Amino acid sequence: DYGYAKDNYNTYYKGDKINGAYASSFISLKQGYAKDNYRAYYKGNKIDSSHGNSFITLDYTYSKDNYNVYYKGNKINSAHAFSFKVINKDYAKDNFNTYYQGKKIDK
């Protein structure tokens, strides 16, 4: 459960209520992530611009939805979700760039 819990009406992370989360569709994922039908969360915090209906966790602390890629809950602005692949716990790549801990490596 990675610190998440819910009842019929509310969701919680380590005892604190998550405001705005939809308990009826809320599920805990892995690596500190969770989602409902509308948005995703990392360690209890809403991930801005996330789309819960297509959100998935990748290896380590990377994740993505149909539009964006995230590292530890932070959007990787230049990453392309369609081609994004995790190489190991620190490195990832897409068809255009390579990333180290969620930051683009300049070529």
Helices and strands, with pairings:
Elements: E1 4-6, E2 11-13, E3 16-17, E4 27-28, E5 33-35, E6 40-42, E7 45-46, E8 56-57, E9 62-64, E10 69-71, E11 74-75, E12 85-86, E13 91-93, E14 98-100, E15 103-104
Antiparallel strand pairs: 1-2, 2-3, 4-5, 5-6, 6-7, 8-9, 9-10, 10-11, 12-13, 13-14, 14-15
Question: How would you characterize the overall build of this protein?
Answer:
Helix content is 0%, strand content 36%. It has strands at residues 4-6, 11-13, 16-17, 27-28, 33-35, 40-42, 45-46, 56-57, 62-64, 69-71, 74-75, 85-86, 91-93, 98-100, 103-104. A four-stranded antiparallel beta sheet has the order 4-5-6-7, with no helix packed on it. The chain has a four-stranded antiparallel beta sheet with strand order 8-9-10-11, with no helix packed on it. A four-stranded antiparallel beta sheet has the order 12-13-14-15, with no helix packed on it.
Short description:
This protein is 0% helix and 36% strand.
List the main descriptive attributes of the protein structure presented here.
mainly beta; 4-stranded antiparallel sheet; 15 strands
